[in-house]
Amino acid sequence: MLQVIDRVRLETLIELPDLFGPVANAFVAYSTREANVPPVQHVEMPENDGAALHIKSAYVSSLHCCLVKVVWVRLFWNSSLGIRVRHMSELGS
Question: What is the pLDDT of residues 44-91, one digit of tens each?
Fold first, then answer.
């Protein structure tokens, strides 16, 4: 069953200390290749105030579940806050 959980709802469901064990287990699953974690998909939308869409996914075979995280990013708004902004074409240079 697909569930969409926003940040406000997520914060009511978990306590930070409860995450330490599962996060440690996730690193183990990743390092033993039990977790299938493809590269992050990045979609730039320069005509939309420099917005970008990041799509992250993973499947852990022992848990029989898949996670998809979709993040809408508007990095170029950072410049109005005095944070240096680099376009993706500048990365790696």
Answer: 877 776 778 889 999 988 877 788 888 877 655 556 666 655 555 555
Structure tokens of 70?
């979709």
The stretches of 1-86 forming alpha helices (DSSP H) are 7-13, 20-31
DSSP 8-state secondary structure symbol assigned to residue 39: P
* Residue spans per domain, the chain: 7-90
Torsion on CA atoms 29, 35, 39, 42, rounded to nearest 10 = -100
Rounded to an integer, the average pLDDT of 21-33 is 89
Spatial contact of 36 and 58, defined as CB atoms under 8 Å apart: yes
Q: Please name the amino acid found at residue 78.
A: N
Q: 4 in helix, strand or coil?
A: coil
pLDDT value for 93: 44
